[in-house]
Structure formats: structure tokens, C-alpha cells
Write a structure and sequence with these properties.
The complex is a heterodimer of chains A (297) and B (278). Chain A has 297 residues and is an all-alpha fold. Chain A has helices at residues 18-44, 56-69, 73-104, 106-121, 128-135, 139-163, 167-175, 180-217, 223-232, 236-264, 270-283. Chain A has a single domain (49-286), classed as MetI-like fold, CATH 1.10.3720. Chain B has 8 helices and 10 strands. The chains are: A mainly alpha (297), B alpha/beta (278). Chain A: This is ABC transporter permease.
């Protein structure tokens, strides 16, 4: 049977190499706890104003209040997450759609690209009041601003990826009599996927920024609203707890994109590539004639 | 080689492939390519890339095109492939004038031009996939071709997992998968190291003989050109011109040791004399 384990170099660090991993994690923990302890001590001995720079234990209490005793954050967390994902999806659909159209049609590219660039050089966050005036105080204005901010990196990356197909492979496809449609689906699009995903990753985090800024400006729900409320009340511990929730949200969305990237653009990473190769070898058993006990000499 | 014997036994168990296979190859007699005064100019006609090349090729023949940069050898190959149009003369393959890329003419490039998101066998299947739906028979055929080029255990390896030489073997298998019987090779092993190139050259001769293809092989290495070919088309630059066609009388299959023989060296001198005048 095909055995790729002999041909693929094993990754330098094996995750199951437990002692090495534990050692590294342990060091991280020591540093992190050390910083927290120093901060805590400084707060208790009055080196900081404890209202403006709350010490870790007070932030922890605030987190407990937000997530456990009051549970106030869940709805807001969900609203912001939903708005960010929705904004991102709109931006991805429009951005990739326009980029594909621009890549396929030169005059379309000539007449559309300038608007995209004007949109890019305009400080998008400055659009917030206008967007809110247009779309209202509800969710749609947040989704719209998230989409506007996420659009440009997705559009530009997709267009760049689609335009930089290398001439040799293009010629190879032509020599095989490929039609334009095949050239697009089998060469240009897959070759552009790494670039497209880089754009989508930036777009995802940008959408979150757009949504939260819109919430700061005018909203009734979302973590941005919570943040505003706690800051006005000078409840800095809760404000920081909310900020940490935003980081968590960003991390969540980014990790999701990383996983998708890893799955779809698998050929960029050795370990994933080896796994995909093995999976395809297994699936191929249906048509493959097994070499009759033949071993290479 | 053992792997070839296995190929044949597995081939017996399945339907015969649709395309013709002539084993042995050399000079079956029938003329498959006829070129008369093939010319390529650029711009208003003042830049001449190739000037009036006339030649014929018989079925199963191996022809090398040798010459320095700018002699028009790659241009000529691309005209035969239908990738670029000629500006004068006539060129017919299998009795039909070449005007665009065709399924009976296949091309292989200096770069392997593999798709890195496809496994070796998926890369080999690309030509079929562009023409029609891929069947289980096509897949078995592709696996057989990979065996033939010495990549028996690498069907599901991705290009990045393969060395440069192995990538070119995949490209060769892909060329054979097209079913074309006119094989055009543009310095296919030019980017590889000397040792790998010599070994691949020997295997190339074996493989094309096995499928009975008529082969055009572009190179700028005189020894390589003579070692591989039944005939060497010597080309000179400014303007690109087919200066001379040299017959190579050595029997096939050939061994690398013929390169030490006086006859071989006489051929090298003959080619070098033609090129030396420029």
C-alpha cells in the first residue's frame, strides 16, 4: 500500500512529546502569574489608583459577576458576535464577487477598482454617523459598518490572488486545450485561495472592530454598549472584564478562520498535506488495483 | 525493470486503452509531421524569430532541437504545439494543418507546472479531466503511467513532497496521459542537476519508445541532443534558422557509454562546427 510516512519529513515538534510541551506551557504560566501577582501586590499596597486601574482579583470578581452571578453579558456577546459574522459574510460575498468579476473582465476592473480604492483611503470609521443615520440604531447599522470595513482587504486580496497566475502553468493549461471556465475553476481560483484566505482573516477581525465602534456610537445592545455603560459608571473592573470578552470574541472568530484556512488551503502546511494525501489514498481503494504483493527491489 | 512487468500484468485484466501503442518505436515509416518554410516574425515583420524551417518527422522518431539562446528552437516547438501562430509557411501534423493546441500533440515544459493542491495522480489526470468525465479506468491508467515513470509509491504525494526530478516524472506521466503521440519537450530536465538529468534522459528514451511517440526534444546541450535522438536539428540564431539536420546512427536502446565512442565524438564535432560559425 502507498505509505507516505517514509517520504514526508516528520514535523520538528510532535505535540505528543509531552514533557517538552509541559515545560513550555509551564514557563508561560510562571511568567503570566508573576505579572498578575506583581500587579495585585501593587494595587493592594496603593501604587495604583484602584478605581482606575483595578487589580486582577477585582477584575476576576467582575468577570464572575458578568458571567455567573448576573449573567448579563451573554445576550450582548451573542448580539455582537452575530453582527460581526453577518457583516463579514456580506463583505465576503460582495468582495469576492466583485473581485472575481474584475479578474475576469478587464473593463469591469478598470471602472470598479477606483471606487474600491476611494473607499479604502476614506477613514471607514468616520462613516459611522452616516451609516447609523441610514440604517438606524438597530443591528443593521452595525452589520453595515462591519461589512464596509471588512470589504476592502477581502476584495484586494482576492483580486491580487486571481491576477497573479503564473505564465508557465497558464501555458500548460492552454496546451491541454482548456476552456476559460476550466482555467478559472481548476487553476486561477485554487491558486488564489491562500491569498483569499489571508484577506478573509483580516476581514474577519476588521468586521469585529467596525461592529464594536458602531455600538459605541449608538446602540442598545452589544458588548460595545456594555463597555460604554461601565466606563461611564467608572466601574473599570467590569469595563476591563468586557474588554477581555471582546478579545475572547476576536480569538474565537480568528481561530475559526484559521481552522477553515487549514482545512481548505491544506497544501501550505506539511502536516495537513500529509494527512490529506493519506485520506485520498484510502478513498482511492475503490478503483485501485492492489499491486500483487509486489515490493520494490 | 520490475515495475513495468507488473504494469503489463495488470493491463491484461482491464480493457485495452483507446489510444494506439507502438512498442519499439523507431521509424515505422509513416510521415506524421511535415513542415515547409515555417516562419515566425514579430512586429511589422522586421524581427525574425524563425526563418523558413522545413523538415519532416516519421512516426516514432526522436528528434532533438539544439542551439544557443535566440535560435528559435522554443519558438518552433510552440508553433508545432499550436500555442503560438506561425506567420508563414505550412505545418501539418497527421495531415492536418496546426492552428491551435490539439489533443494529438502534447507538451512538457522546463518547469514541472504541477498544481500543488493536487496529488501526483490527480495531476496526471488533469488532461483527461479537461476533456471529459474521469472514469475508474482513467485512474488505473494514470497509476500505471506513474509506475512507468518510476513513481510507483508516490501516487498520493503532493508536489511539495517530491524532489525536482520526481516532479518532472509526474509531468512526463501527465504528458503521456494526454494520449498524444506527438510529444514536445522544451528542456524538460534543464533545471535539474547533471546526474538526475542523465538518469531521466535514459528513462525518457525507454518510456517514449514504449508508448511509440514521435518526440521533439529541445536542449542547448549538444551531447544530450545527440545521445537521445535519431536526428538532431541544429539551429543557429540571428535570425533563428534550421541550419542542418544530423543523423545519429546508434542503435536503440542506447547506453550512456556510447558517449565515449569516437563516432559519438565525431557527431559532437559536426554539430559544434555548424554552431561555431555563429
Amino acid at each position: 500500500m502507498t505509505d507516505l510516512t517514509q517520504t514526508t519529513p516528520s514535523p520538528a515538534l510532535r505535540w505528543w512529546n509531552l514533557s517538552a510541551v509541559l515545560g513550555r506551557v509551564g514557563l508561560h504560566l510562571v511568567i503570566f502569574l508573576g505579572i498578575l501577582a506583581a500587579w495585585e501586590a501593587a494595587g493592594r499596597f496603593g501604587l495604583f489608583n484602584d478605581y482606575l486601574v483595578p487589580r486582577p482579583s477585582r477584575i476576576a470578581t467582575a468577570i464572575g459577576r458578568l458571567y455567573v452571578t448576573q449573567g448579563a453579558i451573554y445576550w450582548h456577546f451573542f448580539v455582537t458576535l452575530f453582527e460581526a459574522v453577518a457583516g463579514f459574510l456580506v463583505a465576503a460575498a460582495v468582495g469576492i464577487g466583485l473581485a472575481v468579476a474584475s479578474a475576469l473582465n478587464e473593463s469591469f476592473r478598470r471602472y470598479v477598482a477606483p471606487y474600491a480604492i476611494v473607499l479604502n483611503v476614506t477613514p471607514a470609521l468616520a462613516l459611522t454617523p452616516i451609516v447609523i443615520a441610514w440604517f438606524g440604531f438597530g443591528w443593521s447599522s452595525k452589520i453595515a459598518l462591519g461589512a464596509i470595513i471588512a470589504f476592502f482587504p477581502i476584495f484586494v486580496n482576492t483580486l491580487t490572488g486571481l491576477m497573479e497566475t503564473d505564465a508557465d502553468r497558464h501555458e500548460m493549461f492552454r496546451s491541454l486545450g482548456a476552456k476559460n471556465r476550466q482555467l478559472f475553476w481548476k487553476l486561477r481560483l485554487p491558486a488564489a485561495l491562500p491569498m483569499i484566505f489571508a484577506g478573509l482573516k483580516i476581514g474577519m477581525t476588521s468586521a469585529l472592530v467596525g461592529v464594536i465602534v458602531a455600538e459605541f456610537t449608538q446602540a442598545t445592545e452589544g458588548v460595545g454598549v456594555l463597555m460604554n455603560r461601565y466606563s461611564f459608571q467608572l466601574d473599570m473592573a467590569s469595563a476591563i472584564a468586557t474588554l477581555l470578552s471582546m478579545s475572547l470574541m476576536g480569538l474565537l472568530l480568528f481561530t475559526l478562520m484559521e481552522i477553515l484556512d487549514d482545512r481548505i488551503v491544506f497544501w501550505r502546511r506539511d502536516a495537513r498535506m500529509a494527512a490529506v494525501g493519506k485520506a485520498r489514498a484510502r478513498r482511492a481503494l475503490s478503483w485501485r488495483t492492489k499491486p500483487a504483493a509486489a515490493r520494490k527491489d | 525493470m520490475n515495475s513495468i512487468a507488473i504494469d503489463r500484468s495488470s493491463a491484461a485484466a482491464r480493457p485495452v486503452p483507446a489510444r494506439p501503442r507502438v512498442v519499439g518505436g523507431v521509424s515505422a515509416g509513416e510521415t506524421v509531421i511535415e513542415a515547409r518554410g515555417v516562419t515566425k516574425t514579430f512586429g511589422d515583420g522586421s524581427v525574425v524569430a524563425l526563418e523558413g524551417a522545413s523538415f519532416e518527422a516519421k512516426k516514432g522518431e526522436f528528434i532533438s532541437l539544439v542551439g544557443p539562446s535566440g535560435c528559435g528552437k522554443s519558438t518552433l516547438l510552440r508553433i508545432i504545439s499550436g500555442l503560438i501562430p506561425k506567420t508563414g509557411g505550412s505545418l501539418s501534423v497527421h495531415g492536418r494543418e496546426v492552428t491551435e493546441p490539439r489533443s494529438d500533440i502534447g507538451m512538457m515544459f522546463q518547469k514541472a507546472t504541477l498544481l500543488e493542491w493536487r496529488t501526483a495522480i490527480e495531476n496526471v489526470l488533469l488532461p483527461t479531466e479537461l476533456q471529459r468525465r474521469v472514469t475508474a479506468d482513467d485512474k488505473r491508467r494514470a497509476a500505471e503511467l506513474l509506475h512507468m515513470v518510476g513513481l510507483k509509491d508516490f501516487e498520493f504525494a503532493f508536489p511539495r513532497q517530491l524532489s525536482g526530478g520526481m516532479q518532472q516524472r509526474v509531468a512526463l506521466a501527465r504528458l503521456l496521459q494526454t494520449g498524444a503521440d506527438i510529444l514536445l519537450l522544451d528542456e524538460p530536465f534543464g533545471a535539474l542537476d547533471e546526474f538526475t538529468r542523465e538518469r531521466l534522459n535514459v528513462e525518457l528514451m525507454r518510456v517514449v519508445a514504449e508508448v511509440g511517440g514521435t518526440t521533439f526534444f529541445v536542449t542547448h546541450n549538444i551531447q544530450e541532443a545527440i545521445f537521445l535522438a535519431d536526428r538532431v536539428m541544429v539551429m543557429t540564431p540571428r535570425p533563428g534558422r534550421l541550419a542542418k539536420i544530423v543523423d545519429v546512427p546508434f542503435e536503440r536502446p542506447r547506453d550512456l557509454s556510447i558517449q565515449q565512442s569516437p563516432e559519438f565524438n565525431a557527431l559532437v564535432s559536426e554539430v559544434r562546427d555548424v554552431l561555431g560559425g555563429h
